[in-house]
Amino acid sequence: MRSKLFVPGSRTELFAKALAGDADAISFDVEDSVPESVKARARQDVADFLRSRTMRDSSKVIIVRINAPGSPHFDADLEAFACPQVALLNVPKIQSAADVQAAAASLESAERRNSLADPIRILVNIETARALRLAAEIAGAHARVAGLQLGLGDMFESLHIDRHDERNVHAAMFAMRLAAGEHGRFAYDSAFPNIQDEDGFRREAEQAKRLGYVGKSCVHPKQVALANEIFSTDELSLATARRIVAAAERAAEQGRGAFLLDGRMIDPPFVKRAQALLAEANNGPSR
Q1: pLDDT at 286 over 60
Q2: The pTM is what?
Q3: Strand, coil or helix: what is 19?
Q4: Is the pLDDT reported for residue 158 higher than 80?
Q5: Max Cα distance, the chain (Å)
Q6: Domain around 60
């Protein structure tokens, strides 16, 4: 899931166009991008599209960013989007492990009412100071949590933190990546609001890639190509991974768990990373 394109739930004219684009995932949004007065209409429009013929032939990862737990729209959102077409529900404004557990319980109830056999997983937004401090607890709160998504806009704006300072961005990214990694969840990078600033998008995305994030949110189709490029695995990395795995097999036959390759000591953590890289490449973009 190198790229995830946000599509406002109130913009029905963009639905099919987004689905035909190059983003690995489409995230229909019925939260912040939809005014209160049209949330019910947007919910119905997205639900209808998800169940339409157009969706049946799509291989996209489908995500819906719903309204926050405790909001007047949360239960109705779960009822509308607990359907086979949805792979992930993106849940905003989570503040604690208890919030995750309550949301998961509500989702399970909605799935039972809708006779949904396969459980939908949860992508949790980390967008407040408290959520970042408790991110590891949040990541491990429930088996349905697939990953954590950084929300720098909400977090930095509320705290008056300068996003142009890469040290600030790195600090938040690093903290959330470790929290996600503690429980084997993936980390997903924040949206970048300035669609004209391609250099800024690239800097953030490249920093996220170096920290082990799997992809970046996009707010405009023109950002998708950049995200796909940056989070794709290059052939040089794949070639190195193949050599590491092959060398590890030879070393294992000789009873060695660690070995030298090109003057570099390789032991099990490096081998596991190489194996994961090859598996990801064989299975296509991370989803």
Answers
A1: no
A2: 0.86
A3: helix
A4: yes
A5: 69
A6: 3-231
